[in-house]
Design goal:
heterodimer; A: alpha/beta; Rossmann fold; Alpha-Beta Plaits; 2 domains; 9-stranded mixed sheet; two-stranded antiparallel sheet; 11 helices; 34% helix; elongated; B: alpha/beta; Nucleotidyltransferase, domain 5; 5-stranded mixed sheet; 3 helices; 5 strands
């Protein structure tokens, strides 16, 4: 079972739910796809066993072969190449690594070289295997790192995928391999707005999904109202708990410290397993 | 000398366009002969790197200078490689800017912004 945890809005508790869910399983793999600021490791504190660079191919132009035909410059939809005087300027951050420029070059003046944009770490934290992606500062897109993580997902394991916030390319890449999408919602209007965006996204991807209501207070909950209105299954309600906040701020894991939270997340895992059977 | 100015419409009385890469039109003015022509900016519908493509167009037009409100890092790199000088535009029409340029009233553009899409930087 592969569970993707997403929310749209940041700070609703994706990492909290992902980390605790992976710790509640007997054996599991936690995958941090929030590659711009991966913080699952702050809680899991894994022993790192491997650290591999993630690279993307970018063009390198041999000007002694180049005939200045500009086929490459004209082809690039992202305008990553410019020919000025006798120099080809390559804008690596703009390049999407499609390889079109080297394919179109009639004299084979363009080769591709690998450029590092981040790393993937592998490690272990008790019963949880950890895969964590990290994008280098200043890079434009984390998608290649997430693709690298997806290629490393072990077969036949229980996997929890901690998605980036938002509902754009990086989130789509993170839920692609998922059997089930868990949407984490907080009781704010902003939270509901972004919940509606990921709700649209998971339906577009035709994934089974359900909601966890986090930080629940006794008063009205706009996220719950949204779920009722759209007939979305609510799998769990986590109360607003200052003790939980303190625990998180120290980097501790609720499931590993408190019986009540172990039970809550074990029940959530059971509920997801029941829901995900088509 | 040939000078390029990004402009909102095909008229020398039209206001200068505050965007460089996404301006709809460039006015290409020959200050020696007093003639001009308008170039449609091919970069205006680009998915990305509009500044780079617009700068490539200006380099290809053989202009020696550009008068613009602002310019991104990547575009500036292309213009610098070709030796195209960048001048800071005034609010106003193309004609007003060209007059100020000829009279030496326009300062060189020095505040090159790092791009609006968080991927500026060019070759590092």
């Amino acid at each position: 079972m592969r569970i993707a945890v997403l929310s749209g809005k940041g700070g609703t508790g994706k990492t909290f739910v992902s980390v605790n869910l992976s710790c509640a399983a007997e054996h599991s793999v936690y995958v941090d796809c929030d590659v711009e600021e991966p913080n699952g490791c702050l809680f899991l504190k894994p022993e790192i066993s491997a650290r591999v660079p993630v690279t993307v191919p970018v063009p390198e132009v041999d000007m002694s072969k180049c005939i200045r035909c500009r086929k490459c410059v004209d082809f690039c939809k992202y305008n990553a190449l410019a020919l000025v005087k006798d120099k080809m300027l390559v804008f690596c951050e703009v390049c999407h690594s499609c390889g079109g420029c080297s394919l179109f070059c009639p004299v084979k003046a363009i080769t591709e070289k690998e450029r590092a944009i981040g790393t993937i770490e592998e490690g272990k934290s008790g019963n949880v295997k950890v895969l964590s992606g990290c994008l280098n500062t200043g890079e434009a897109s984390g998608v290649p790192i997430i693709k690298g993580l997806m290629n490393r997902l072990p077969k036949d394991s229980d996997i929890v995928i901690d998605c980036p916030p938002g509902s754009a390319c990086t989130v789509m890449e993170s839920i692609r391999e998922a059997d089930y999408c868990l949407l984490v919602a907080e009781p704010t209007l902003f939270g509901v707005h972004n919940l509606s965006m990921v709700y649209d996204l998971v339906r577009l991807f035709d994934k089974p999904f359900g909601v966890v209501l986090n930080k629940c207070l006794p008063e009205e909950n706009p996220a719950e109202e949204f779920c009722i209105e759209h007939r979305i299954k609510i799998l769990s309600k986590i109360p607003y708990d200052e003790g939980l906040g303190r625990l998180n701020s120290k980097g501790h894991i609720a499931v590993r410290e408190y019986k009540q939270y172990r039970e809550l997340f074990e029940e959530l895992l059971t509920a997801i397993n029941k829901e995900a059977v088509w | 000398m040939k000078v390029v100015v990004p402009v909102e419409a095909k008229s020398l009385d039209a206001p200068i366009c505050p965007s460089f890469g996404r301006t709809p039109i460039f006015a290409l003015i020959d200050t020696d002969s007093g003639t001009h022509k308008f170039l449609d900016n091919e970069a205006v519908t680009s998915h990305g790197g509009a500044g780079i493509k617009a700068a490539q167009m200006i380099v290809d037009s053989e202009a020696a200078a550009i008068v613009t409100c602002r310019c991104g890092e990547n575009a500036a790199q292309v213009l610098n490689a070709a030796g195209v000088k960048m001048y800071k535009a005034l609010n106003g029409s193309v004609n007003e800017n060209i007059a100020a340029f000829i009279n030496g009233k326009l300062p060189l553009l020095t505040d090159i912004h790092p791009g609006f899409h968080n991927h500026g930087g060019g070759n590092k």
